User: What shape does this take?
Amino acid sequence: MRLTILLPFLCAGALLSQQTPDTTQVRPKAGPVGTLPISAIKPGMEATAWTVFEGTTPEAVPIEILGVLKNSLGPHSDMILCRMGGRAQRTNVAGGMSGSPVYIDGKLIGAVGFRLSQFSPDAICGITPINEMLEINTYDKSRPSDAKGPQDPPKRAAVDVPGEMIQHVLAAGSAPTPASAGGYQLVPIETPLTLSGFHGVALKEFGPLLSQMGLTAVQGGGSGSLHAAKPASGWQNALQPGEAIAGVLVSGDMSITGLGTVSYNDGKRVLGFGHPFFNLGPVEMPMAKGEVVWTLASAFQPNKIANATDIVGALKQDRHAGIMGVLGDTADMVPVTLQVRSYGSSNQLERTKDYKFNVFVQQKWTPFLMMLTLFNSISQTNEFSDEVTYRFNGDVQLQDGSFNISTMLAPSEMPVPAPMLLAGWWADKFNRLFGNAVQMPKLKSVKATVDLLPKRRIATIENAWLAQQEVSAGGELSGKVFLRPYRGERIMRDFKIQIPASLPKGDHRLLLSDADTLNRIQSAAPMANRFMDLPQTVSLINQERSNNRLYVSVVENRPTVVTDDKTMPSLPASVLNVMQSGQTQNRPFVTSAESASEKLAIPFDLVVNGSYNLKITVK
Assistant: This one.
């Protein structure tokens, strides 16, 4: 009896697998097309999907309708369950097939968007109904404040939740999904995120983070036409139904593109994917054509291996049911120029490499992409070694304002590689720009230079002394400071500073320190004020001190107040009491019990760490 029940399904599967592409069928074209409502879909119906297996020409794929899963995509949101035949029976439901349009008797019913289980011999897919995809353009155009990105911090719960419960939820989130654990679950088909110009180490480091978002990082190629955000000639006839479509995150000497398939094209607007790309809502992302090199057959992780070719428009919507783009539109990107210079043991410049690329503009993705591209540029050059020191200088031009920052980073015994730390430091600047709660930054250009210096260049402030400890207000102090470098001879430097004429009589301190010691109180200001605007954020970044200098400061026992991007040192106690009373203060501020007045910055070609205090007496 059991064999009798299974026999029809086994026969149907065998017939599907034996079918070859029907070359007599007419490829779907852009323009109006009839649709079939989900209420008309019945088990056993025969359909045809169109997708590209290699090259740029879509092929017909026979589809058997298995049934309709009610509310499987959410309340009042159904999914059509199908079995794919033809070439798809061998490749399985591959990454990049997302959006493949499915027709019954020439009427569009939806797009392939989901797959069922892993290691299954059947190419079972889920189809997103076309009526849900056609709703995408009816949504508002406001940019969501909680757009999903690769570095989202955890959201604060609206109500108090027991800490133990949160730990259970987080632990469950990192556990294998039912599909990967051997159960069955319809999941969105992984979007192949093709990285061109990226080394394997970059994919290894960032791949797990991308996979958490349903993206599969793969190495691939990109056309030189991706250098320009302007649509290429012939865009009017691009992205026919069934052809490959790509969203462009990075273009140029390095490129990152997410591949899917075109579901519908009315001659101007294009729908694809059948599931979200990043679920960002309204976006402004370049949209490109694609060329499939090969479709990798696998029961575990089948994928299309492809190149993005010409930019032909801009993606405007990234929604639950798919993506929507407009042909001929232009999405602006941030132009980035990155220069990597290698120096020899005698500090002579030996080699220079220049990279030019463009980065997608989005509050969560731009910082991440800046981090990824910088890490890739410096981690796998021939000059890379475990003991290389990095000297960095960056210049960021905005529509209103600019900042120039520099730092040095030497390797340490930390488990995180130095290139990752430097890339994270660079990304943090853009996190701060896009994280301000007042306005979106408009970046005009980004330039950066990274120097690779041989050996671990780091030194700790070891000792210091003064020629005399007593000085008159307005007088001069001279002394020496000693630094202990990593595996090197002790370094000595002379210094001379002038004491402020306003410094009161009595005992004070002379502080010789690294940049972090002086930056610490200013770095607390953004955490105290959530409504710091963009000009104030840029001003604070510009005030940051570089860690390849030793700073000499006079410290007195009078408080400092930092509010927004302003520092008010040596405040009288009476003024501080009024500010703390709240009578005149309507903005938060940070206070320190002492005030440090920087008098001298001594440059070094190494990272300076630590601090040292000397007592001085003003007569």
Remarks:
- The longest strand covers residues 303-319.
- The chain has four domains: 2-136, 189-331, 334-453, 458-618.
- The chain is about 20% helix and 40% strand.
- The first helix runs from residue 2 to 18.
